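Hello forum,

I keep getting stuck at the same step: I have a sequence, I want structure tokens, and every attempt I make locally crashes halfway through. Rather than fight my setup again tonight, could one of you with a working pipeline run this one for me? It's a single chain of 236 residues.
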Amino acid sequence: MASRSRRPERRQEPLSRERIVGAAVELLDTVGERGLTFRALAERLATGPGAIYWHITGKAELLGAATDAVVTAAVTAGPTGAAESPQDAVRAVALGLWDATEAHPWLATQLATQLSRTPWGTVAPRIFESLGRQVQAMGVPEAHWFTASSALMHYILGAAGQNAANSASTGPVGADVDRDEFLDTVSTAWEGLDPDAYPFTRAVADQVRGHDDREQFLAGITLVLTGITALHRPGR
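Reply #2:
Ran it on my machine without issues. Output:
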């Protein structure tokens, strides 16, 4: 009688904090914060919720760890050449965070939460360090490091967060309207404003049409960096 061949058992990757956080990021990307439950996470990892609690104590810690993992990848993804200027390094960090908020719709809200409720955690210091080192390298006096770095961080996260909100929002004209059509609607509405009450807004209304959000974001970074450099140039 022929013996049955045993099917080789598939080796399960050991459960680790890193693996749990990676699965949490995937869940957040697909089902959002409300869909991130320990039961759903356990199903994705093919384990029991109890095993996850050995590594993560609760949802707040899980969200913080997921946010930190994405931020870490974002602020270290840029060019690191020896000839890179501090300004270029700031732009790389800024674009890394911009792209991360576009790729992960939940990230902008979590960044705001982490920075306002738990600034002593890992997320705020990680972003602040990545920008602050470049501010220091630009020759800004130590007394102004905090202000200059804060200005950069607030602009980057504010603009990236607004872009993420724009992408997620259906807007008043409906979810199926493409971006160019939406911007044209805004421009037309601004052009129709009272010329005495809104002369400036009417004047720039046409510039809204077809503008590139990413280019505008980088232009804002250049403005902030130029201001920092002008205020703190040697001998001033």
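The two ends are 94 Å apart (CA to CA). If your local run keeps crashing, start a new thread with the error log.
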